[in-house]
Amino acid sequence: MSRPVVYVIACGAGPTTDLASFLHLARSAGWTVCVTATPQGAELLDMAAVSELTEYPVRLDYSKPTPAWPPADLILVAPATLNTVNKFAAGIADSVALSLLTGCFGLDVPVVVAPNVNPGLARHPRFRTSIDQLRAWGVHVLYDPAAPPPIWMAPWSTIANECARRMACPAPDDPSAS
């Protein structure tokens, strides 16, 4: 049985600095993870930590990575900013991250989106409409408007478990749960 492949799209929000936590969970589950980021997400990405935990180069531009990424079994957008959620719902693909997301979605690759949006921004009608539209299209959105600050996002372990469920594979071990 081949290892599941997850493409992670990190956006310009605080939890991007802790993406290594998700990568550790993914490794414990035996997943292959390929990472890209929006331009703002790239500024927060700990390239050394991410590179150490992935088998494939981080992709931040349109050049083809070497070695080439394997086809995705799932796309995870986490943390997903207001901007990225709205662009995805509108079909805007103005970065390599959004182009990969939009293209894979068009090929019926399952998508999990974990927004990290503060309550004021989350009240914007376009954000709520975008979330509803993505859900109607079959995108699994892990959005909890009651998530506490400063991280207004589901925990990495919850995100990893949802990814496993969507890929119908075993959930990763969470060392922090022991």
Q: What this model shows, in words?
A:
The chain is α/β, with parallel strands linked by helices. It has helices spanning 19-28, 39-44, 47-53, 82-90, 96-106, 119-122, 125-136, 156-167, and strands at 5-10, 32-37, 74-80, 111-115, 140-141. It is built from eight helices and five strands. Helix 1 (19-28) links the parallel strand 1 (5-10) and strand 2. The chain is globular and about 40 Å long.
Write a concise keyword list for the protein shown above.
single chain, 178 residues, alpha/beta, 5 strands, 40% helix
Q: How would you sum up the global shape?
A: globular
- Level of helix content? 25-40%
Strand order of the largest sheet: 2-1-3-4-5
Poorly predicted spans: none
Tally of separate helices: 8
Major sheet description: 5 strands, parallel
Spell out the blueprint of helices and strands.
Elements: E1 5-10, H1 19-28, E2 32-37, H2 39-44, H3 47-53, E3 74-80, H4 82-90, H5 96-106, E4 111-115, H6 119-122, H7 125-136, E5 140-141, H8 156-167
Parallel strand pairs: 1-2, 1-3, 3-4, 4-5
